[in-house]
Specification:
By secondary structure, the chain is mostly helical. 70% of the residues lie in helices and 0% in strands.
């Protein structure tokens, strides 16, 4: 009896569908025509604003992926990218930092180009001279002076402190966007910029009660890294012409960055100091972890999140990664955490949170998306988050992490 009732209802619905299909289609057509008429007069900037502003983003993953997949990807970005600072610290114990980065990006870049060739068939598109040049520039800014300087700075500064300083990437991004492109700087963001710099000053200032005594050269190097990363991201987003194929773009950037890192290794005398026979198993494992997990798996997860999750959620990695890095540095490397470090870190992360939450407004003037990666340590991420790292370019100026 229940079955026959269900069948009757189903048949009835089919009848209604047939009768109303033509009228329904007509209503849809009229609505679409109205939308097209309204959009004809709207300036491109309005369209970009709707595309980039967080308010235009859905509050749930856009293609409704499974909750397990969504949270797994987000956790991977949180934990793996946060742990790359620890991985760098262990890798450079017996491998000089620039040479370590050269090995890392040559391997990761070669793998990405191989993946691109496999996905593109026997005759993948060949990048032009402008694309090669811009890929080299972006790779140098993001990976050589961004990521490479993270490793160099960690020679004398604890990995957790390095992570806090690298967290300033969004701060520098806002400042440089305002300086170079006259991006609007809302008052709340300007206040956050001041707060962020004050937090770093409190963190590294050598005087006062509970002052941290960090190596000045290491602090300066780590201060340069996020500036370079922000420059690279802005250049990639607004000036560069990069290959449209994400794997190719990222691979070329990594190889370009590796070339610059090789020169830096030579200039700093790393070839003379490096003894392959003294490389520890721990350093080799850490380097492998950075390549496979930091540069491939987490970057793939990041690119997937960019396509399926709102930026308001994806951007939270910017202030979760430093917390993970500080915790792992203390637990595994016994890095000290003073009360001053805790307070300064909180100040910096509050500033970052404010800026990240306002990023939609800051990037509404961007003319096109950033083919750039996660952050200075995550760097395989360089400028083109692989859509899966499997890639698709990051939405306009979505800075990744200089450590990936």
């Amino acid at each position: 009896m229940h079955g026959s009732a269900a069948q009757t209802g189903l048949m009835g619905s089919r009848t209604v569908t047939r009768r109303g299909a033509r009228g329904f289609s007509r209503r849809i057509e009229l609505r679409m025509q109205g939308r097209r008429r309204r959009s004809r007069g709207a300036p491109d900037s309005c369209a970009r604003l709707r595309t980039l502003d967080h308010s235009a983003m859905p509050s749930v993953p856009r293609s409704s992926p499974s909750s397990l997949l969504f949270w797994s990807a987000l956790l991977a970005v949180y934990v793996i990218w946060g742990s790359t600072y620890l991985g760098i610290a262990i890798a450079i114990e017996t491998i000089p930092p620039f040479l370590m980065a050269v090995i890392r990006f040559v391997i990761a870049g070669t793998l990405l180009l191989a993946l691109d060739r496999r996905r593109g068939g026997a005759s993948p598109a060949t990048p032009g001279g402008r694309e090669l040049r811009d890929s080299f520039i972006v790779g140098a800014l993001l990976l050589a002076f961004g990521n490479g300087f993270v490793g160099w700075g960690e020679m004398t500064v604890p990995s957790g402190i390095a992570a806090i300083m690298i967290a300033l990437v969004p701060v520098w991004f806002a400042v440089l966007g305002w300086l170079y492109f006259r991006d609007r700087l809302p008052k709340i963001v300007g206040i956050a910029v001041v707060i962020g710099f004050a937090g770093v000053a409190l963190l590294v200032w050598p005087a006062g009660e509970g002052a941290n005594q960090f190596d000045l050269a290491g602090v300066i190097i780590l201060g340069i890294a996020p500036i370079s990363w922000a420059h690279g991201t802005l250049y990639a987003a607004r000036k560069a012409r990069l290959p449209s194929r994400p794997y190719m773009a990222s691979g070329l950037q990594m190889l370009g960055g590796a070339a610059v890192l090789l020169v830096l290794a030579w200039l700093t005398g790393e070839f003379e100091r490096f003894d392959p026979g003294q490389v520890s198993a721990a350093s080799i494992l850490a380097l492998a972890y950075l390549i496979v997990f930091g540069s491939m798996i987490a970057f793939t997860a990041y690119g997937w999140l960019l396509r399926h999750a709102p930026l308001s959620i994806v951007g939270t990695y910017a202030y979760v990664n430093p917390i993970v890095a500080v915790a792992l540095g203390a637990l595994i490397l016994a890095e000290p955490i003073s009360a001053r470090t805790v307070v300064a870190s909180a100040v910096v992360l509050v500033a970052v949170a404010i800026i990240v939450s306002a990023r939609g407004r800051l990037t509404s003037q961007a003319s096109r998306p950033t083919p750039a990666p996660a952050s200075p340590t995550t760097a395989a991420t360089a400028t083109t988050p692989l859509s899966s790292t499997g890639p698709r370019p990051a939405p306009s100026e979505q800075p990744a992490a200089p450590s990936s």
